[in-house]
Amino acid sequence: MPDGGRSLEDAILDLLDRRAPGASVCPSDVARAVHRGEDEGWRELMEPVRRAAARLAADGRVEVTQHGSPVDPAEARGPVRIRRPGR
């Protein structure tokens, strides 16, 4: 398990740093990167990852999107993606 929310935020930013400018990541990519086991335990990290993305979005460090458009993370239902702001 990650060490609190900070590790999830760091994982989001690290994955975005490894992507092309303007590219996005799925919360499941982050959960899988953080989960250390071979099992499906990463699924338990999905909501914590979404909360970490919401905190980063509130700080202006990322955008949470649906269908390519920024959305309010608190209102988003269904699949989302995370990207750096400024597209």
Description:
The protein starts with a helix and ends with a strand. The protein is globular and about 35 Å long. It has helices at residues 4-17, 27-34, 46-58; strands at 24-25, 63-66, 69-70, 81-83. 25% of the residues are buried. It has 87 residues and is an alpha+beta fold. Strands 1-4-2-3 form a 4-stranded antiparallel beta sheet. Strand 2 and strand 3 form a beta hairpin.
Order of helical and strand elements: HEHHEEE
- First-to-last CA distance: 32 Å
Structural class, by secondary structure, is alpha+beta
β-strand percent reads 5-15%
Number of helices in the DSSP assignment: 3
| Main sheet makeup | 4 strands, antiparallel
Q: Tell me the number of strands.
A: 4
Low-confidence stretches: none
Shape: globular
**Strand arrangement across the biggest beta sheet:** 1-4-2-3
Provide the residue-averaged pLDDT.
Answer: 91
How are the elements arranged and paired?
Layout (H helix, E strand, L loop, with lengths): L3 H14 L6 E2 L1 H8 L11 H13 L4 E4 L2 E2 L10 E3 L4
Antiparallel strand pairs: 1-4, 2-3, 2-4
What's the short story on this structure?
By secondary structure, the protein is of the alpha+beta class. It contains 3 helices and 4 strands; from the N terminus they run αβααβββ.
Q: Key features?
A:
globular; 4-stranded antiparallel β-sheet; 4 strands; 3 helices; single chain; alpha+beta; 87 residues
